[in-house]
């Protein structure tokens, strides 16, 4: 492992946390690309509002990915952020590339955001149990943003489509 800049954590914990961060980095990259896929292809009533929202969501996901990648490096690991690494490691369900209706995109994104949020909560617990509260804090920050963006996306669905 490269040099660590985080004192008070043993090498095994640092390696485990870097791996944990990279797993969630892969999810964030995959989710970002799913958001952009929807952003480029959606059509229907409310287009411009959702189109612009998804650009902002993608920006926030990129910021979250940056936080996790930098923490992995601080711990003495390497950030695994290539599209190839993300494709291999991501737990995000592949995004449909044959849909255009805004509602279909919103449902697909909402479901993926909720799943990523669940993965993040598991990672928060694991980091806390390992004694790396800084990594847990970063993952908590990312989790809060993913949940908030899930809400922003889901709030655009018609009431009959919410809560599925």
Automatic annotation (TrEMBL):
It comes from the Bacteria. It holds the Pfam family Ferritin. Gene3D superfamilies: 1.20.1260.10. InterPro entries: DPS_DNA-bd, DPS_DNA-bd_CS, Ferritin-like, Ferritin-like_SF, Ferritin_DPS_dom. CDD domains: DPS (cd01043). Residues 19-157 form the Ferritin/DPS domain. GO terms for molecular function: ferric iron binding; oxidoreductase activity, acting on metal ions. Belongs to the Dps family. This is DNA starvation/stationary phase protection protein Dps. It comes from Rubellimicrobium roseum. The lineage of its organism: Bacteria, Pseudomonadati, Pseudomonadota, Alphaproteobacteria, Rhodobacterales. The gene is dps.
């Amino acid at each position: 492992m490269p040099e660590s800049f985080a004192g008070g954590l043993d090498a095994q914990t640092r390696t485990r946390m870097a791996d944990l961060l990279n797993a969630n980095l892969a999810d964030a990259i995959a989710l970002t690309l799913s958001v952009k896929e929807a952003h480029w292809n959606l059509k229907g009533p409310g287009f411009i509002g959702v189109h612009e929202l998804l650009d902002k969501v993608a920006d926030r996901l990129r910021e979250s990915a940056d936080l996790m990648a930098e923490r992995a490096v601080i711990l003495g690991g390497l950030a695994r952020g290539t599209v190839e690494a993300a494709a291999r490691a991501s737990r995000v369900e592949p995004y449909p590339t044959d849909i255009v209706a805004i509602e279909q995109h919103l449902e697909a994104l909402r479901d993926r955001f909720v799943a990523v949020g669940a993965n993040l909560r598991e990672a928060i617990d694991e980091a806390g149990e390992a004694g790396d509260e800084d990594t847990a804090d970063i993952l908590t920050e990312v989790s809060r943003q993913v949940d908030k963006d899930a809400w922003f996306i889901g709030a655009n669905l018609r009431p009959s489509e919410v809560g599925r």
